[in-house]
Write a structure and sequence with these properties.
This protein is of the alpha+beta class and 197 residues long. The protein contains 5 helices and 14 strands. It has one domain.
């Protein structure tokens, strides 16, 4: 999936009836972007960074509520699982709240309690245990405040080698990417998205 189709995939998902029914709308004010990250509206500087990203990839994400992990670049609809990866370090919104994805899993990464679909995805490449962890945009992860325990990219490649029929798209560090599927819908490697009714 190329970078433009990854952003298009998140835009298509966010415009779907499923997403609109589940995602709270940010406050409305005429003429301004109505987008929030991590429960906060964007400052003018943050909005400039988001719009520069949109211009670079030729898409505009819908004005909705999102969470953003500044360390990994992971992004998703508010109270939902990860949908895509933006470049890390954009500092959109503010600190990522623990409840950004509803959680309920007891698995925390960079302070966010993972959504059950995030845990299900990780479980395809590794054993996932309750606890607090860190991860970075290069795929390295470890226990919170501890050294690196492994690399998610390497684990995904190993899982793909063991089960060639299982599709694990591995993106290069910093590459804009999209999650291939969740219960609300999926996107193919070609960037085509479908959402069951």
């Amino acid at each position: 999936m190329n970078r433009r189709s990854a952003l298009a995939c998140i835009a298509a998902f966010a415009l779907s009836p499923v997403a609109n029914a589940q995602t709270p709308s940010p406050s409305k004010s005429p003429g301004a972007r109505k987008v929030t990250f991590n429960g906060r509206p964007l400052s003018p500087e943050q909005l400039q960074r988001l719009e520069a990203l949109e211009r670079a990839y030729g898409v505009r994400i819908p004005d909705l509520a999102y969470w953003y992990d500044n360390r990994t670049g992971g992004v998703g609809l508010w109270q939902g699982p990860a949908l895509a990866a933006f470049p890390p370090g954009l500092e959109l919104g503010g600190p990522m709240p623990a409840n950004a994805s509803l959680g309920g899993t007891g698995v925390f990464v960079n302070g966010r309690e993972l959504h059950p679909l995030d845990v299900a995805g990780l479980s395809q490449i590794m054993v996932v245990m309750r606890g607090r962890y860190w991860a970075d945009a290069n795929g390295y992860f470890g226990a919170e405040n501890g050294p690196a325990m492994g690399n998610l990219y390497m684990l995904a490649n190993a899982a793909r080698a063991r089960q060639p029929s299982v599709q694990h798209r591995v993106y290069a560090p910093g590459e804009l990417s999209g999650l291939t599927g969740n219960s609300a819908g999926y996107c193919t490697a070609a960037g085509n998205c479908a959402y069951p009714r």
